[in-house]
Amino acid sequence: KRLILVGPPGSGKGTQSPIIKDDYCLCHLATGDMLRAAVAAKTPLGIKAKEAMEKGELVTDDLVVGIIDEAMKKPSCEKGFILDGFPRTVVQAQKLDEMLEKQGVKVDKVLNFAIDDSILEERITGRWIHPSSGRSYHTKFAPPKVPGVDDVTGQPLIQRKDDTAEVLKSRLAAFHKQTEPVIDYYAKKGVIAHLHAEKPPNEVTTEHGSLDN
Ligand code: ADP
Ligand code: ADP
Predict the structure, then answer these.
(1) Ligand (nearest to CA of 92)
(2) Cβ within 8 Å of residue 172, ≥6 positions away
(3) Residue 124's domain spans which residues?
């Protein structure tokens, strides 16, 4: 399976990814997680990406296309992948098609996490993450067993620098302007499935449960 998750910040992509990944034995490629790791490690890529990320703007297409091209070569991605947060522009979608064409494969399904903007501020400002695994929690909707601590590793949780009401506004503007056209791009190819992303997590899981058809 080759799957893509599209949705605004806080729509639940990161929460649903591990469930889909385990069900289908796919590799999970989240460009946001990879970029944050590069920023933390101060790699040349991270240095280039930092400013745009802090402002809630998209980093350049070349930068993320390069990351994905590299990551898809991993042996664990051979059976298929879940792209979480990529492509976010039509140019990125076209580049992805070119990469897949070379391998003689194509995207099977694009899950659109449809949700109203008004719900997202509470989701984003209450989010706590475990940086090295990408696991996310929510103070109200998905609290960890011990506040501020990852359930699995016992390591501390952090809040993302860009998870503020202020930066969310820019991220949503970028989503509507640059990423919504990506949904139309895949709708024309007939591979879109729409999810009711405002529902509780287990109900969203039920909706994507039938990816086989
Ligand atoms: P994304 O990866 O799309 O930005 P996340 O999966 O990280 O979104 O979810 C954002 C926040 O909302 C997290 O704190 C998460 O625990 C919480 N969350 C995710 N899905 C739901 C849901 N269906 N209902 C309520 N809260 C949710
Ligand atoms: P969220 O989970 O809240 O949707 P991400 O973690 O996916 O956000 O992305 C965080 C930031 O990383 C984005 O605001 C953007 O600056 C950058 N980013 C991630 N993926 C891409 C992409 N495909 N194209 C451009 N910028 C990206």
Answers:
(1) 2
(2) 8, 9, 117, 120
(3) 2-207
